[in-house]
Hints:
Layout: H1 11-19, E1 37-38, E2 45-46, E3 54-57, H2 59-62, H3 71-74, E4 81-85, E5 92-96, E6 106-108, E7 110-114, E8 117-118, E9 125-126, E10 137-144, H4 148-151, E11 158-164, E12 173-181, E13 185-196, E14 199-210, E15 219-230, E16 236-250, E17 276-291, E18 296-312, E19 316-337, E20 340-363, E21 377-403, E22 406-423, E23 432-451, E24 454-465, H5 469-473, E25 489-502, E26 506-524, E27 535-556, E28 559-575, E29 604-613, E30 618-627, E31 630-631, H6 636-639, E32 651-652, E33 655-668, E34 671-680, E35 688-691, E36 700-702, E37 707-715
Parallel strand pairs: 5-6, 7-11
Antiparallel strand pairs: 1-2, 3-10, 4-5, 6-9, 7-8, 10-11, 12-13, 12-37, 13-14, 14-15, 15-16, 16-17, 17-18, 18-19, 19-20, 20-21, 21-22, 22-23, 23-24, 24-25, 25-26, 26-27, 27-28, 28-29, 29-30, 30-33, 31-32, 33-34, 34-37, 35-36
Amino acid sequence: MKIIPFVLLPGACFGNLLFGQNEISDTIKTVKLEEVVVAANRIPILLKNNPGSVSIVTPEILSIMPKAAGAEEALRLTPGIRIDNQHDGERVHVSIRGQGILTERGLRGIGVLIDGIPVNDPSGFAPDLYDVDWGTIKKIEVLRGPSASLYGGGGAAGILSITSNDGGSNPIGGEFNQTIGSNGFSKSLIQLDGSHELIDYRISYTNMAGEGYRDHQAFRGNKIYEKTNFSPTKKLSITQIISHTDYFQQNPEGLNIGQFDNLRQANPDANPFNEYQKTNRTTIGFHGKYKFTELQDVEVTSFLRSWTYKETSNKNAEYRNITNPGTSVQYNLHLNAGKIKNDISVGTDLKWQNINLYKLQSAGNPQRKESLDETTIETDSLLANQIISQRSIGAFALYKLGAGKFNLIGSIRYDVMNNELTNKLLALEIAKTAKNFNKVSARIGANYSFSNAANVFIDWGQGFMPPSTEELASNPVGYSGFNTHLVPATSDCSETGIRGFYNEKFSYEITGFIMNTKNDFFRFKQTGRGNQEVFYGNAGNSKRYGIETSFSYQIIKCLALQIAYTFSDYKYVSSVIDPVYSDPSYVLTSPPSPGQWLPNSPKHQLYSEIVYSINNRFKCSLATEYQSKWAIYTDPKAYNGELDPAVFQNWQDGFNLFHAMISYNLNIGKVKGECSIFVRNLTGAKYMAFTEPDPDGNAYHPGPAREFFGNIKIKF
């Protein structure tokens, strides 16, 4: 399924609709969806011929974002995906078809690539999306559904492939972009770009900060991103990137029911213990392609990621020093016989990761005054001191058949993942624990094009979700060591759908799916480990089915409507009881019972947006965002209302929000620009943004009230 509002409008009207007669960026152009090539499935194929659900987010969609700060803005019109912005900044929960919905932070089971460079570690976990400035992105491809046969454990839910802008058409150019808004929000982007003969380049610097709409929710970040495309010969092309991110985010934590009188407040632990996360990361990578002949080519990707991470809580301060290198090689063979086209690819992905991790016991400071400082009180009590070493090897083979109006893609992959932990606090002979996983995964899909207006597809794929680094390292038995009780979750998903494009005025995609997952996960906590210590267990099996739809329609000249709607029904269908999850002496949460909804999974999600060009310079938009009610807890007693109703309330009401924007294009000589004003939550609705299945009742994270944002963008 796709999602591509705006993009099917005719060139003249659509260009005027979004940017007036003078576009502010040479990279923003009208896109005909039937001509878009999808590359995230590792064999390029036209969108209309793709045998599976996929969404394409284009620059036209990305141009309408209040802050351009979080993934929830960029992917707002993508069905099947749920994103919760936890703290008003860039820290988000992301799930596709409910996979990864219980992750405490980062992206679980979703393969993430930025300019072709993988973000996931060897376990398939992507820690965050801090390296991305959404204001510099050219295209996002979202493959929905299990894709383990393409990317291993990082593809159990789907793929998120992000491509940033290339260099401009002139030797030297650039952009200045400034946004300010409610709750102290400020974002500055400075960019230089250009091209000359065989090379183009772009380098950007972003500074962002905000106070947050709740107490102890402030954030600040700096990021530098450099990208160079180089084609020294007709046979060789290279993309090289360097990125650096420094991001700090305070953690206000969830509230309980009794704290609803003041939705701005933080949890009582947040301020005295100065709870926050701090990331400092550098990535160097390149992607190269060499064509031996018109029939043969090879692609090579290599990267090195080095970073430090600190997280504080009311129990401990955790420090991590991480090194994460990786490389991929893929050989492609193209065979054509008349109207029959065959593409065969084989390759391998190799990743390593080394984490030096230690934890110091925390102490609170009741006299602490709220500020953005990073100081914490840490005792000399060393709770954990360990080294985690990981490696993964994936070997894959892909096949694509094109025969007139019929297209078929199949893939198979074998993954081996090794995890070893050395506890430096124990004697050498008992210091090491290991958890290793392996799996064969496959996928096959077919598409038949009756016409541009009717392209029917059917697809079946498998998912393989091994316990992630975060899940393994959260050990309920002690402060160090692996959670050796965890086993991988596996899934299979069948989907069928139809997409079409009519007269460059209307596009749509409708997909229905059924997914069965074995050894699905749940989250639990235990006595004495603090509110930041979250543990994971295998709950049993789940069944998920849903319908994902997207529409883009030019109603009249210069008036466009786009809609994304998702229906989902995600439930646990069986239970697996492990004694470690049932010991009442220290475990606070029991595994879910059959029939329970997966938490934080509303049955109905809708986002619609209408854009109107007032004249050649003015445009405005109005959007509505709707989510129905959802379940909060996995614990059967909390789910069924058997616990104290003053603390535990399982069902969370949904919400309906309205957003608006108006912008004006201006020209000053050769300088092109745009000014815009956004209003988010136009009616000031009071709502709950997301919830967590927290056994101590601190499950509720309220959303912001009405917010205003102003932006000025200058292209030179």
